[in-house]
What we know:
The protein has about 200 residues and is of the alpha/beta class. Helix content is about 20%, strand content about 25%. It contains 4 helices and 12 strands. The radius of gyration is 16 Å and the shape is globular. About 30% of the residues are buried.
Amino acid sequence: MIQPSSSSDLNQPAKADLRRRLISARQSIPPQLWRQKSDRICAHLLSWSYFQKCRIILAYTSFRQEPDLSPLAAHHPHWGLPRCVDHQQLHWHYWSAQSKWPLRKGAYGIVEPHPRSPQVDLSLVDLILVPAVACDVRGHRLGYGGGFYDRLLSKPAWQHIPTVGIVFEYARLPSLPQDLWDKPLAGVCSESGLFLG
């Protein structure tokens, strides 16, 4: 397991180094094991009663061997995926396997919805599955450094919507460096289980 520094006052270079090491470890997971771990994460989410009741779930497309949540689409009809706009904010679009508009590579090489696909009615969102480089046991998240989810989750409209960080177990750490604006997630899901705060 990769451990962060014990200092609670990590500087940005140290945070960037931790991020690099964790992403490198994730990308070294053999494809078959990556698939197995991803499928276990999906199984934990599917067994969660709240998941089954959600109207719309916001998720993500796997990038650089993030856990793959695409099998969940066969079990829940209403999904929203993010599209990066102006390298600063995320717009959410409906997605299903039957969508008229195919997914395509967008900013940063991440697969995202077509700009013309319908945008999600955010008032119907009941759950956000958040990508992460790592999460700690208290729900603090290490992202990719762009601040997209920090900006999103700091807005009042999103404060009441449950958020679950999605990571492999090696990246569920005892603690992570925090910034003043960090807001803990409601839970973390790895192949070992769903851990709600």
